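Consortium newsletter contribution from the modelling node. Members have asked for a concrete example of what our holo predictions look like. Here is one, prepared for the iron/sulfur cluster complex that several groups have been discussing at recent meetings.
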Amino acid sequence: MFGVIIFAKIEWGAACLQIIGLNLEEVEELVLKLGEPRYRARQLLDWVYKKGVDDFGQMSNLPALFRQRLEAHGLTGGSITKAGAEEAADGTKKYLFRLPDGFCVEAVYIPEQKRKTVCFSTQVGCAVGCTFCATGQQGFKRNLTAGEIVDQVRKIGLDQRTRISHAVAMGQGEPLANYAATIKALRLLNADYGLQMAARHLTVSTSGIVPAIYRLSDEELQINLALSLHATADQLRSALIPLNRTYPLAQVIQACRDYAAKTKRRVTLEYIMLAGVNDGDAALARLVDLAKGWLCHVNLIPYNPVPAAPYRPSPPRTRQRFLGFLQKHGVAASIRQERGAEVNAACGQLRQHLKL
Ligand code: SAH
Ligand code: SF4
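And here is the predicted structure:
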């Protein structure tokens, strides 16, 4: 049976099989099974990724019979639909996407002069349950498929009529807890037949799943790794990020050092600054110790308040003090410019106040 053979190898979307999210090898397998020559695969992928066309009816260089067969087998070009959007004055735009089974995820478009970035989601909700994060409060619903991940970037590029240059897995979810789909999506973003984005413009942010960090460093993908560090002692880090009880700081830092050594890519240590919680002198001294002497960069992140979370952002002068001290001690550091807070599109706010 045709369906059984391909579906055994190809990932299912929630409702039906979609072209987006399949790699070249899988689409070749599909077209061969449908009795077409191998080169049809690239034609099909060109429509989906390069021209952004989901409707087989519009794919004019494909034979009518082939298009009918695709439809008859319950295939579609795309996977998610735009359910709404909200734009901030600085051009940052939050998108709400509906998945085939009715769940929604958010992604954010962040335009800058030289780069156009999409911050995308990898899960509906998140099981890690960080105490400062709006997504963490939501709990975990399900993993996204590779197609649902890559389609967030594609659809935003189409909507903005621009080439998305950078993509970061910093939306809803823990990307390394949805490892296979996230890696497949990153490969599709990077592929010559996909969205052709440079691997070094792609970033995965993780709360610190140690075995997955080691696995990632063996993927031979030149992508960037960001670690959500947020604390420099195990007790506090476990209180903020429950996963730290499973993978404590020393192990997480060792895995990141290994990633930097293997890939020669600079790892970003993300540090949300929480007033009176992690912004004291002792924490700062430990931060220097953790970050000194290897290929990393500390990104100091202003906390975006989340309802029901008992935190306040550190004042700007404390952030500046951290920045100056880190730099004085030879640690590369910066303060993240927050974008889109007025549409709740900044980090950790993705679920709040959907005025859509
Ligand atoms: N799950 C992954 C990626 C998604 S979270 C991770 O935790 O790394 C993306 C980034 O947003 C992380 O650094 C996370 O710690 C940060 N973040 C979460 N809630 C935030 C908040 N309220 N204010 C500022 N940053 C937040
Ligand atoms: Fe999940 Fe990341 Fe939010 Fe933690 S910060 S709950 S890992 S999305």
